[in-house]
UniProtKB/TrEMBL annotation:
InterPro entries xref list: AAA+_ATPase, ABC_transporter-like_ATP-bd, ABC_transporter-like_CS, P-loop_NTPase
Residue ranges of domain ABC transporter in the record: 6-236
SUPFAM superfamilies: P-loop containing nucleoside triphosphate hydrolases
Name this protein carries in UniProt: ABC transporter ATP-binding protein
Presence of keyword Protein biosynthesis: no
């Protein structure tokens, strides 16, 4: 039987009067890449923050590896890696200092972190900057460091929020391949992105969140067929009720031309 890694029952979150997540039920199984998509403000980050243990203000039940995360200390976090959409790096540190620091937070020894961090930077082609301050890194180099820092402790669950941001086309190919291979190793991956072409290709299962509810759940073929569309972008625009792109673009261009 498939192993449940995440179990969410009747999850609800309110910010004041606003109901941000509405009664979400979800089981996620080992070795799956979940494409987690939805319009801005749909509640994606809110869900991820709960699963990371950063927000305990919710109703319902959330279990990770069978353990209710509300009653736990923070041990379950050792098994989780997170690439946030906007990561705060300690830019005054060099890559070695930063990665050994993060690795030690996850209980790896300094020497293990040092070896692993250097090897991973070498594989991604940035080992020449191992002793350089992060403030001098290009956007893509920083993103590679963030990805390495999320993976150094070999977590079983990975949350990736726009992980390809700032990477060139070659690096994108490498990281996508790494994500697939990690899935093949049995890791469970939440892949959150607004780039539909990538989500469509990489995901085993796609969850579309709108106004705090899951309104589509299935693999790309199922979702495409069910909605009679060719691409995930079309399904997304259709299900989130957006048909005004052309009219908005016309208005925008008209105003630009006016003065
Ligand atoms: N701390 C907060 N206090 C009040 N409202 C909040 C808070 N955090 C999020 N919200 C609201 O909750 C809703 C869901 O936000 P969330 O960040 O989860 O959306 P999202 O799907 O991740 O969006 P995006 O694609 O823009 O990152 C939004 O309406 C947002 O304004």
């Amino acid at each position: 039987m498939e192993e449940k890694v995440i179990e969410i029952k009747s999850l609800g979150v309110n910010y004041g009067e606003k109901e941000v997540l509405k009664n979400i039920d979800l089981n996620v199984y080992k070795g799956t890449i979940i494409g987690y998509i939805g319009p801005n403000g749909a509640g994606k980050s809110t869900t991820i923050k709960i699963l990371l243990g950063l927000n305990r203000n919710y109703s319902g039940e959330v279990k990770i590896f069978g353990q209710d995360i509300k009653n736990q200390n923070y041990n379950f976090k050792k098994n989780i890696g997170y690439v946030p959409e906007v990561a705060k790096l300690y830019e005054n540190l060099n890559a070695r200092e930063y990665l050994t620091f993060i690795g030690q937070l996850y209980n790896l020894s300094y020497d293990d972190c040092d070896k692993k961090a250097h090897a991973l930077m070498e594989i991604l082609g940035i080992e020449h900057a191992y002793e350089s301050r992060l403030s001098s890194f290009s956007k893509g180099m920083k993103q590679k460091v963030i990805i390495i820092s999320a993976l150094m402790h070999n977590p079983d669950i990975l949350f990736l929020d726009e992980p390809l941001s700032g990477l060139d086309a070659n690096s994108v190919l490498v990281i996508k391949e790494i994500i697939s291979k990690l899935r093949d190793e049995g890791k469970t991956i939440f892949y959150s992105s607004h780039i539909m072409e990538v989500v469509e290709k990489i995901s085993d299962r796609i969850l579309l969140l709108k106004d705090g509810r899951i309104i589509a759940d299935g693999n790309f073929e199922e979702i495409k067929k069910l909605n009679n569309k060719e691409s995930l972008e079309e399904v997304f625009n259709d299900l989130t009720g957006f048909e005004d792109h052309s009219m908005i673009a016309d208005k925008f261009v008209k105003v630009i031309k006016e003065v």
